[in-house]
Amino acid sequence: MSRSDQVSVHAAPEEQQVMATEKMAKSQILKEDTAAQSLQAQPAGPLTGWKAWGMIIAVSGSTLLNVYMNGAITVAIPSIGEDLGFTQSDLAWPLQAFNLTSGCLLLLTGRLADKYGRRPVFLIGTALFTFLSIPPIFCLDAVSFNTMMGLLGIGAALMTSSGMGVLGSNLDGALKNRAIAVMAGGQSIGFCKGYLNNQ
């Protein structure tokens, strides 16, 4: 018999009881930690009801504004170019600058949304798009106007990529299909509204 076994045999009943109590307490703490970790790892369920539709309206409204900008600039660029002294070759640049930045940055902004959270990136993109919509009004030449339109495309990219992620991660089943249909319909309505309002 080893020395540790001899000590455990000759230990007082009170010491054995204390050791058993400590073992039970440690096992209980371990179980509680495991349960807490499993609860934290468990994803939240999909949204339903008015919360889901509020989110759908917010995301669809943001993409509507993006496409509205395309329609509005398409129609208004001749008069904008006349006021700012655009040459004939400059007329294509505002819309192209917006589309280039928003299209080229979709993958990057989608990666940012996956890494830092879709909702924060969506809110940042919405705020950026809102604030950058104001400076083009005060531009005095073609270079500054084209630059601001390019920067505006960054906000559009942040909104579009993260908005799709928000819908995909928070909705499920038929409601997700309806949300995508509403978003697509909002884009069509936005372009038509921007085109017609500036004719």
Protein model, in words:
This protein is elongated. By secondary structure, it is mainly alpha-helical. The N and C termini lie far apart (99 Å). It has 8 helices and no strands. It folds into 2 domains: 3-41; 49-197, Up-down Bundle (Growth Hormone, Chain: A), CATH 1.20.1250.20. The longest helix has 36 residues, at 49-84. It has helices spanning 3-10, 13-41, 49-84, 93-104, 106-116, 118-132, 142-170, 174-197.
Quick overview of this protein structure:
The protein has helices at residues 3-10, 13-41, 49-84, 93-104, 106-116, 118-132, 142-170, 174-197. The protein has 199 residues and is an all-alpha fold.
Q: Mind telling me which CATH architecture of the largest domain this is?
A: Up-down Bundle
- Characterize the main sheet: none
Total strand segments:
0
Helix tally? 8
How much of the sequence is in beta strands?
under 5%
CATH class value of the largest domain: Mainly Alpha
Overall residue-averaged pLDDT value:
77
CATH topology of the largest domain: Growth Hormone, Chain: A
SSE series: HHHHHHHH
Could you outline the blueprint of secondary structure elements for this entry?
Layout: H1 3-10, H2 13-41, H3 49-84, H4 93-104, H5 106-116, H6 118-132, H7 142-170, H8 174-197
Helix pairs in contact: 3-4, 3-7, 3-8, 4-7, 5-6, 5-7, 6-7
Keywords, separated by commas or semicolons:
199 residues, 82% helix, mainly alpha, elongated, Growth Hormone, Chain: A
